[in-house]
Write a structure and sequence with these properties.
The chain has 161 residues and is mainly β. It contains one helix and nine strands.
Length: 161
């Protein structure tokens, strides 16, 4: 829940162009002044280019983009007609539609989302997905999805064996 209560719906407030889902995100500190905000080249985690693509459920995959001490970000790719049943998690989540169209069902209420739309989900809010068109989503979670990071690490270890 946001501080005012309920879910925050943001409609077409930001158009952000991202590269291909396989393109890695690069981070750098531009000047020492950032250290007063807690940023330094020593505490910014290195992003792993080899993050695996993981199937969440039939027709839906995810790939970790970036993470830190308090946030986790991934790109989800959803095939047309795919569904994810209602679930909840302790993390807050921001869903941003990069391309496509889907129905986000929050607490039983459907919300039609398409390219450029964003939606905030509070901690432990039940939500599910029905994909209308092939869709790519940038999902941001806080705190990080340690469960997803552990699955990524196991997949990397299996690939290296």
């Amino acid at each position: 829940m946001n501080p005012e209560g309920g879910n925050l719906w943001i409609n077409k407030t930001a158009k952000v162009r991202f590269g291909d889902a396989e393109t890695s995100t690069r981070w750098r500190v531009r000047s020492p002044k950032h250290s007063r905000y807690g940023l330094s080249s020593r505490n910014i985690p290195k992003m792993k280019r080899e993050n695996p693509t993981i199937e969440i459920c039939p027709g839906i995959t995810r790939r970790t983009v970036a993470y830190g001490k308090t946030m986790y970000q991934m790109i989800a790719t959803l095939a047309a007609g795919s569904r994810m049943s209602a679930h909840s998690h302790p993390q807050e989540q921001i869903v941003h539609i990069l391309e496509g169209q889907m129905r986000l069902i929050v607490d039983g209420v459907p919300h039609e989302l398409s390219s450029g739309d964003s939606f905030y989900l509070g901690s432990n809010v039940p939500h599910g997905v029905e994909t209308v068109l092939p869709t790519r989503v940038l999902d941001t979670f806080s705190p990080p999805r340690d469960d997803y990071l552990a699955i990524d690490e196991k997949a990397r270890q299996r690939a290296a064996a």
